[in-house]
Amino acid sequence: MRETPSRPITTVLPAVALAVALAGLLAGCGDDKPPVQRVPGGDVARGKQLLMQFQCGACHSIPGVEAARSTAGPPLDTFGRQSYVAGRLPNQPEPLVRWIVDPPGVKPGTLMPNLGVSPEDARHMAAYLYTLQ
């Protein structure tokens, strides 16, 4: 068996220091999720119930919402991390509420119908959607 030549400590230390630094960086890259966007006047539990009531699952898959597994519309499983609503509105509570209340009014030609959702109900629905990270 051949002996491995030992390396001077001065050549090993930089490699060890680099490995420790990389491990520290990777530890900081965990699955940190952004904070959940708060919707003034929005109730998360009520929003989940309303998403079921308005049958949003007929077009979208929505985690936590019973029978919401359709693929006709985009999945909403990471909605809280998306930058835009409907590809054009900043993903902030007020634009989202406007979108839920009247999609064709916000984006003419959209396939998402106006379901007659009130602004109050839309705030609850938005509150739930922002929990989806």
From TrEMBL:
InterPro entries xref list: Cyt_c-like_dom (IPR009056), Cyt_c-like_dom_sf (IPR036909)
Name by which UniProt lists this protein: Cytochrome c domain-containing protein
Residue span, Cytochrome c domain: 42-133
Gene3D superfamilies assigned: Cytochrome c-like domain
Domain of life: Bacteria
Pfam families listed in its UniProt record: Cytochrom_C
UniProt GO MF annotations: electron transfer activity; heme binding; metal ion binding
Record organism: Pseudoduganella albidiflava
UniProt entry keywords in alphabetical sequence: Heme, Iron, Metal-binding
